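Methods — Computational structure assignment.
A single polypeptide chain was analysed. Its primary sequence is given first, followed by the predicted tertiary structure written as structure tokens.
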Amino acid sequence: MTPTHLHTALALAEAGMPPLPLRAGKLPFGNCRTCANNACGGRPNMKTAGPCHCPQPCHAWAAATTDPRLLTSRAWAKAWHDAAAVAYHPGGAGLTVVDLDNADAIAWAREVLPATQTVPTTRGEHWIYRGTMRSVNGVRPGVDIKSTMSYARWLGHGTGSTAALADAVRALAVMPSPSRRAPHALTTPVRGGQGECRHRTPAYLDRGIAMAEQRITEARSAIHTTVYRTFLAVLSTHGRCGCLTDAHVARLFTAAQAKGETARHCTDAWTNARTALGM
């Protein structure tokens, strides 16, 4: 229903969340003839929300805007008439959405990520955090990150309070970089810090390590990246207190080496993960 979608979009815009219409299949509307195949050159920088130079809702997420005059303009009327849903640009609203696509992804998030505002989706949940980061799809099975230069379907306010974007979420989008490689090999794993423990029970840490082992074991490609990202996730969640022992780290190294990683690569990946998190 066009009025419902437009009213939703206007309410989002008033709340500072740049909306855009979606057609069937949860896809943005295609570019107009002038912008087809990006012939217009696209939006300058393509890094901020707002209209294209043409008045049409072009360039997907970059069309999102909080300008009610544009949202109610004739140029957007057909898009709203044909719209199947409303989306918004999380980065333009200062937000990050962790898109959990199935029950396994939700179970993982409950173990690893801090609680925050949660919105049910058709197959899973959106976990919404306050803060922005780069968007990355497939950071682990069933998990996408939607923030800058991306869009998420609007499905309501959900439940819970919006938490600040945590290191555990940011770490999911970090890729290994040659500049972060250790200057020399280390022969033993590096233990965590000695900060205040947040885990309450040893079972929380044990479940986290077990899920990390499973993630590495089930990887079918990009083993190096999977190992590094898994180390990042473990350290961001458990690495700043005294609970993470050499025995826990050895379990992760064993899982990685069973997938063909060398001891040297495991040590480098662990050291690089600590460096990325400022530990």
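Note: The longest strand covers residues 95-100.
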